[in-house]
Design a protein that fits this description.
Radius of gyration: 12 Å
Distance between the termini: 26 Å
Shape: globular
Organism: Papilio polytes
Strand content: under 5%
Order of helices and strands: HHHHHHH
CATH architecture: Orthogonal Bundle
CATH superfamily: Insect odorant-binding protein A10/Ejaculatory bulb-specific protein 3
CATH class: Mainly Alpha
Oligomer: single chain
Keywords: Signal
Protein name: Chemosensory protein
Largest sheet: none
Structural class: mainly alpha
Number of strands: 0
Helix content: 55-70%
CATH topology: Antennal chemosensory protein a6
């Protein structure tokens, strides 16, 4: 439960600090596994991005870029960021499918990009 929250937050951090073409490489080497494996941190990030709890600086960054990341299936992510984001989203889904879908419903309520996002999760592209 917490682990997938961390994944969401890590995902947001990965795509934070946007530029015109790709996001900055600040989070290219972000350790997604450590977040996925720490239930407490994952839940804290989840609560932050879902507006159910306080946010850290990284949590605020995640929350800021998460809508675009989900709506574009990580379209502006670098290849390294795509790996991290994909790992985090898949980790969140594995930890708690209901929270994963709650997250998607919040940031893609019209479900316009679900197919592209699912393709990204399966293929990494």
């Amino acid at each position: 439960m917490k682990q997938w929250l961390l994944c969401v937050l890590a995902l947001t951090v990965v795509v934070s600090c946007s530029s015109q073409q790709q996001y900055v490489n600040r989070y290219d080497n972000f350790n997604a596994d450590s977040i996925i494996q720490n239930e407490r941190i994952l839940l804290a990030y989840y609560k932050c991005v879902m507006e159910k709890g306080p946010c850290t600086k990284d949590g605020k960054n995640f929350k800021r870029v998460l809508p675009e990341t989900i709506s574009t299936a990580c379209g502006r992510c670098s290849p390294k960021q795509k790996i991290v984001v994909r790992k985090l989203l898949l980790g969140i889904r594995a930890k708690s499918e209901p929270r994963f879908f709650e997250l998607l419903d919040k940031y893609d309520p019209s479900r316009l990009n679900r197919e592209a996002l699912y393709t990204f999760l399966v293929t990494g592209n």
